[in-house]
Amino acid sequence: MGWRPADKIAVALHNFKANGVHQLTVHIGDLLYVQEELDSGEWCRGYIFYEPSKRGIFPASYISIKESTSRNIGSERIVVPAGDELLVEATQGLREWRWKLRELYVRGSRERWRPLYHAMEEVVNWRRTLVSSNTTLEALQETKVKLSATIDEINRLSGCPLTPRDPATGAAVDSQNTSILELWRLHRDRRADSTSDHTPGTLRRQRKAQPHGHLHHLFMRIDSVDHPFTENSEIFFFLSIGGKDQLSERYLITMAKGSYRQPKSIGERKSCVFTDLGSKDIETDIYLVCQIVRNGKMLQDKKYHSQHSFRRPYAVGVLDVRTVLQEQESSETAEHIKTITMPLYLCGTNHESNFATFHLNVIQKTGAKGGQKPGCAIALSLRYAN
Predict the structure, then answer these.
(1) Are both 270 and 373 inside the same structural domain?
(2) Which residue intervals make up region (Disordered) (predicted)?
(3) Do 243 and 176 belong to one domain?
(4) How far, in Å, CA of 347 to CA of 314, rounded?
(5) Do 221 and 128 share a domain, yes or no?
(6) How far apart are CA 318 and CA 183, in angstroms?
(7) Domain finish residue from 186, 208, 230
């Protein structure tokens, strides 16, 4: 007689006191993870779900198998109880916060113990309402909003990190399937909610009425650069809001000396994707900015010259992306690609000192007269993020 894998979640129906070395003491209501079952079905081997250090064998007749689901966290697969994720989070949180509450009480830190105690009482009350489900759908959603806000308040009081949540439901998001930028935005919004002066849940209900915008990716492909390069050059592309705030990282392609039209760069690097653009981003004054920097030596007829290479500003290009986005939305083709020529403006010696903000002058059409040259042929396409 041997053991077979079980991989199940169970709840204890009766108290069981261990009377052997390998047996596990369980109490009514304990959530158990059953790793293996005896072939006869009389005994199970596992551990208490929220206290993995307590493990052993226990009678199968003392437990009831609970519906469960599996999740992939990194390269590992874990089994968790099925049901409302916020309800499971509240249950697990109450088990963890009790130790913090006891620690504060023993230390005599009443000024920190009291607000934590009252907040835990609120979580118990909101959890009881969710378990009963004896309410309307609208009231149930409002309870979830209040419960998630109270959980975040307890995490703040106990020094735990805030949990990124879906602003529409209040449930914790899956960090494995959420982009880094979206996680940062969710953390920023949750921190603003927790530090603002309002009743927990008030601001979140206000946001609930707002549509949750989808993320977009902007695909860019450089087809050609209609300009002769007399020196090795670097071309940087990045997105900017209003020309003032940089929205993305800078994408680099290189142009070799004497090259014309086709970028002398690795084929895979002729295109890039600007990821995680929110609905608010694409509705603002968003521009694609191009900056060209030359790499060369000083002229020999100058008084001071050197054999070392120097990087000097050369040209700037600006493209209003809003027109492309508007055509993308009106197009029936999901992957509509539009090719546009971005004019280049030579900065000259007068604008080398303010090269970092020269693209702002181009947007405002000041200080860029007379320097326009044929520029880059760029293909753009807006893609919806999955």
Answers:
(1) yes
(2) 191-211
(3) no
(4) 6
(5) no
(6) 30
(7) 208
- Residues 238, 367: one domain? yes
Query: Do residue 158 and residue 237 come from a single domain?
Result: no
- 229 with 378, same domain? yes
130 burial level (CB within 10 Å; 0-12, 13-18, 19+): middle
Range of the domain at 67: 3-81
**Which of 291 and 198 is assigned the larger pLDDT?**
291
134-174 pLDDT, tens per residue?
677 788 888 888 888 888 888 888 777 777 887 777 777 77
DSSP secondary structure string for all residues of 308-368: S-EEEEEEEEEEETHHHHHHHHH-S-TT--EEEEEEEEE-TGGGSTTGGGHHHHHHTT-S-
Average pLDDT over the chain, rounded to whole?
Answer: 77
pLDDT at 45 over 90: yes
Q: What is the pLDDT of residue 85?
A: 76
Q: Are 145 and 201 in contact (CB under 8 A)?
A: yes
Q: What is the CATH number of the domain that holds 233?
A: 2.60.40.150
Helix (H) or strand (E) holding 191: helix 180-195
More confident residue, 264 or 179: 179
User: How many domains would you assign to the chain?
Assistant: 3
Most distant CA pair in the chain: distance in Å?
A: 97
Q: Which of 148, 175, 208 is the last residue of a domain?
A: 208
Q: CATH number of the domain that 43 lies in?
A: 2.30.30.40
Helix (H) or strand (E) holding 272: strand 271-277
Distance (Å, whole) CA 127 – CA 148: 11
Position 368 pLDDT exceeds 80: no
For 314-332, write each residue's pLDDT tens digit: 888 888 887 776 666 555 5
Q: How confident is the model at residue 197 (pLDDT cuts 50, 70, 90)?
A: very low
* Residue 332: both structure tokens together: 């029936």
- Do 157 and 261 lie in one domain? The reply is no
Cα distance between residue 9 and residue 80, in whole Å: 7
Task: Please give the structure tokens belonging to residue 290.
Answer: 């191009």
Q: Identify whether residues 60 and 170 lie together within a single domain.
A: no
- Enter the pTM of the model: 0.47
Q: Any idea what DSSP says for residue 215?
A: P
